[in-house]
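Figure 3 (text version): structure tokens given as input.
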């Protein structure tokens, strides 16, 4: 996910300061990793440098100084272009689980035990996400984010089942390579 474009998207609704942008990001993308304040301000500085955002105002109101930013016309054009781009499906996904299965075979470990443990971890995470999405008051963004993660975890589980059924063949291939 492009922090640069997400912040531009948040600025599309009107001028905002970094603290507010961070808060709105964390609310709108509840399953994403929360942004660090330093990341927000560094990204804002780059957006200004690149002409995609500009300082709208600087206010103090007796507290710390707050700089408000707004998207420029160039920023709005870049955001529209980015939002309209189709994210190409990856031809091959780098898979840490697969790498660990192969390394387990190479090192004389127990890839079947590893897959069982990984399956248990995935199932636990799926239970957590199901609880999150069915919690009273869960908003649609939270439900959709949880559904996205659940579908990916489910795909991983199906892959683990297929891989476990093929471990004998995989072990023979890895051992002879």
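Below: residues designed for each position.
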């Amino acid at each position: 996910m492009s922090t640069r474009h997400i912040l531009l998207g948040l600025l599309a609704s009107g001028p905002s300061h970094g603290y507010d942008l961070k808060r709105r990001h964390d609310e709108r993308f509840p399953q994403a990793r929360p942004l660090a304040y330093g990341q927000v301000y560094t990204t804002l500085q780059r957006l200004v440098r690149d002409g995609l955002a500009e300082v709208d105002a600087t206010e103090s109101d007796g507290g710390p100084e707050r700089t408000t930013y707004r998207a420029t016309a160039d920023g709005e054009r870049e955001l529209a272009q980015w939002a309209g781009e189709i994210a190409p499906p990856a031809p091959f996904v780098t898979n840490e689980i697969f790498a660990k299965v192969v390394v387990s075979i190479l090192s004389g470990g127990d890839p079947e035990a590893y897959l069982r443990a990984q399956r248990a971890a995935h199932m636990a995470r799926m239970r957590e996400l199901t609880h999150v999405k069915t919690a009273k008051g869960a908003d649609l963004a939270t439900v959709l984010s949880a559904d996205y993660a659940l579908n990916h975890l489910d795909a991983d589980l199906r892959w683990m089942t297929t891989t476990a059924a093929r471990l004998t063949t995989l072990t023979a291939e890895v051992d002879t390579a």
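The chain has two domains: 3-84, 96-176.
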